[in-house]
Known about the structure:
It contains eight helices and 21 strands. A hairpin with a 5-residue loop joins β1 and β2. α2 runs parallel beside α4 and α3 crosses α4.
Amino acid sequence: MSVLKINDVSKIFPNGTTAVDSFSLDVADGELVCLLGPSGSGKSTLLRMVGGFETPTSGAMTIDGEDITYVPPERRPTGMVFQSHALWTHMNVFNNLAFGLKLRKVSAEEIRRRVEGVLDLVGLGGYGLRSVTQLSGGQQQRVALARSLVLEPKILLLDEPFASLDQHLRERLREEVRDIQQRLKITTLFVTHGQDEALSMADRIVVMRDGRTEQIDRPDIVYRAPLTPFVAGFIGSMNTLEGSVSNGVFTAANFSVPLPISNGAAILCVRPEALEISVAPQGGHGTVHRVTDYGTHGLVDLALRDGVRVKAMVSHPDLFRLGQGVTLHPKAMAAYRNDILVHRTAAGDSVVRQPERQDA
């Protein structure tokens, strides 16, 4: 059993910058939790504190009930994989992996067994005598992962390990890492700014902003039910309309939709895949500005009145052309006021009011 508990941890640097602010999180045994947020949100600083490479200003961290807050990195039951690989280029693959075990006075036979076993696990069986400089970027990242796993840590820490790789390799490696993590059932804390990585790999996602938690939930909940406008806009593509509510109707530009909340300013968010559109020969809510065909689907960029722009995902992009009038039909939406979710409509529950036609 390997449980990580982070209790009310803060980090304030000497220049007064607060990188992490009163952060708390429990990571269950065998769980993979992603810390997701923009640059400067505090996610890497938090991970480095768990790994022992930064010291918290306040708060505490425990692994299986043992306080590790001020334990040095080499004495923590954690293994960290960095974005830069951090491999020793003067050593071959075997010695890169064996180095930490030698420091722990592990026998030569046990070192050989564990190194060969973990190389097989990451798909590099037989690569022990290779120089790390002869490996591709993806292979080097596998070695970096193997170097952490060979120490048999209780907690695996991954700091944007795929950021320097190309898209195709990144997608393949994240699937492999997730498979390895599930096979070993190792508790893992993963830092990324890539939404796709978080959505595809995590058991839970922690969305961070300015050192604090915006939302902690399963990936499907974070995507479909974001609690704040920041989460709504940061996870995936989102149409955000700033408008006002009057007598149960939200209006922005010349688009309006029933919204059962009190009068006043509000923000309406609709995913492109939840925004159906239809051709409107005589006017409509907006006009087609651009059509992009991705093969599997199309994305229609729409211009509403007052310079407002929205996007709709369609299955037949060939049905729409530049300058064409369209009407919007949101299937699901969420409304926010003062950074708080105040209303959410599931698919099939919303009814859109048609815009009034204005004759010349």
